[in-house]
Amino acid sequence: MGEEAKTKILREVRKDFLQDLLEKGQRFDERGPNDWRNVSVQKGVIPNAEGSALVEIGGTKVLAAIKFDMMTPFPDRPDEGVFMTNAEFVPLASPSFEPGPPGENTIEFARVVDRGIRSSEVIDVSKFFIEEGKVLGLFLDLWVLDHCGNLMDTGALAGCAALLDTKVPKVENGEIIRDEFTGGLDMKYKPLTTSFIKVGKHFLMDPTHEEEYARDMSFIVGTVEEKIASIQKSGNAGIEKDEVLSLVDTAFEKSEELRKYL
Questions:
Q1: Residue-level pLDDT at 28
Q2: Residue extents of the structural domains in the chain
Q3: What CA–CA distance (Å, rounded) separates 102 from 67?
Q4: CB of 117 within 8 A of CB of 163?
Q5: Chain centroid to CA 136
Q6: What are phi and psi of 234, to 5 degrees?
Q7: pLDDT tens track for 104-158
Q8: Least confident piece of the model among 7-16, 46-55, 120-129
Q9: Does the 34-259 domain belong in CATH 3.30.230.70?
Q10: φ, ψ of residue 107 in degrees (nearest 5)
């Protein structure tokens, strides 16, 4: 039997077992359907970065770091600076992570975190303009150090914590003066995501890696304090309008619990 067939059988076994638990109102780790695992946020963990944070949700750990560099602006936005998010899945974090160039899961992870921050418009990139042809670029790098489920929310929380820890470098004569700063980022909001999976007819928030194996679909809601910043669905299962509205309401409520750690 090939590995793909074995994986499919294992997924179906886990799904059946999880569905039986959910019918009894239980989960693998005995949490409620909308309960977070233990959360930890440490800021300023990399002294040489302009901002950094190490975040853990359950056993999932993501390290985020901020670095500024001088850049040429994009041609269609000559008066604006640049914000970019990159990610790396460290091979030791999961048996499914492999060394080499970023795969599609790595790219999706970076894009989801990036979209939540960018769509919330919490970073005013117009303030990064230096002079004609020169702007500051803000780079957010994410390293997944341990994968125990729900990478998206852990990465979004790490990215937001690192941005809140960020010091904007001083610029003189069109050059960055390292180790001299003008202050922090002016962030009006704290953008976060709240992730759900659907297993049969049940929805679970903050899924573990084992629960993600059994999912029929994923639904991720990016929020700031007062509005939706992004929504992403993946998987073949459908979702009803009232289910979407219920998940959005839950996302607003439960993201406030995460913001307390910031």
A1: 79
A2: 34-259
A3: 20
A4: yes
A5: 23
A6: -140, 155
A7: 888 899 999 999 999 888 999 999 999 999 999 999 999 999 999 999 999 999 9
A8: 7-16
A9: yes
A10: -65, -40
Strand order across the 217-223 sheet = 202-205, 192-199, 217-223, 228-235
CB atoms within 10 A of CB 195: 26
Q: Can you tell me the mean pLDDT for 176-196? A: 92
How many residues does this entry show for the chain?
Answer: 262
DSSP category for residue 190: -
Query: Cα 241–247–249 angle (5° rounding)?
Result: 105
3-state secondary structure of 106: helix
> In this structure, which amino acid lies at residue 175?
E
How much is the pLDDT for 11? 67
Structure tokens given for 230: 């992004």
The residue assigned the tokens 């190490």 is: 54
pLDDT of residue 105: 83
Q: Can you give the three-state secondary structure of 129-168, one letter per residue?
A: EEECCEEEEEEEEEEEEECCCCHHHHHHHHHHHHHHCCEE
Dihedral pair phi/psi, residue 203, rounded to 5°: -110, 135
Pairing, β 175-184 against β 167-172: antiparallel
pTM: 0.91
